[in-house]
Design brief:
This protein has helices at 5-33, 46-66, 70-92, 111-141, 147-150. The chain has 156 residues and is mainly α. Helix 1 runs antiparallel to helix 2 (46-66), helix 1 packs across helix 3 (70-92) and helix 3 runs antiparallel to helix 4 (111-141). The radius of gyration is 21 Å and the shape is elongated. 29% of the residues are buried. The mean pLDDT is 90.
């Protein structure tokens, strides 16, 4: 039993919303990376981390659109949610450097940071919705088994 056309449209729309949010996230991170190259530890700069986030966001956005499956939606969720968590934590908490990761504390909001934060939140919610829709579709497509057939056979 396949999902009806209405479900396919909903699934496509929310996958595109996740990809759009990840696309904005990637654009902002790539755009700001050069600015943050000066913030570094001995091995990594914040610009390097921004570029890595941009690449991860592009890959996750493409994956959830090209192959909308629960695992690609989960990957999109992890990328978006981790970026959202990082921007919120480093906005409000001075964590300091963590091993090779430089201190990224920045207690201000500016337009690109705000834009990326909203995009990450949208992508996180859309990826979650994609996971739920795909799970429900899979659950509906499985044949239901009566509980009696699941009980162990009685031995005589």
């Amino acid at each position: 039993m396949n999902a009806g056309p209405g479900r396919a449209v909903v699934r496509t729309i929310i996958a595109l919303m996740a990809a759009a949010g990840l696309g904005v996230d990637a654009y902002v991170h790539f755009d700001l990376a050069d600015t943050y190259d000066v913030i570094r530890t001995s091995t990594l700069s914040q610009g390097d981390l921004f570029r890595a986030e941009g690449v991860a966001a592009v890959l996750a956005g493409l994956a959830v659109v090209v192959r909308p499956r629960r695992y690609t939606a989960a990957f999109a969720f992890l990328v978006a949610a981790s970026a959202l968590a990082a921007v919120l934590v480093y906005r409000y908490v001075n964590v300091g450097p963590l091993g090779p990761i430089p201190s990224m504390y920045e207690p201000v909001w500016y337009p690109q940071k705000t834009q990326a934060t909203w995009a990450e939140a949208m992508a996180t919610l859309a990826a979650t919705a994609t996971i739920v829709v795909l799970h429900l579709e899979r659950r509906k497509s499985r044949p239901r088994q009566p509980y009696a057939s699941l009980a162990p056979a009685a031995s005589n």
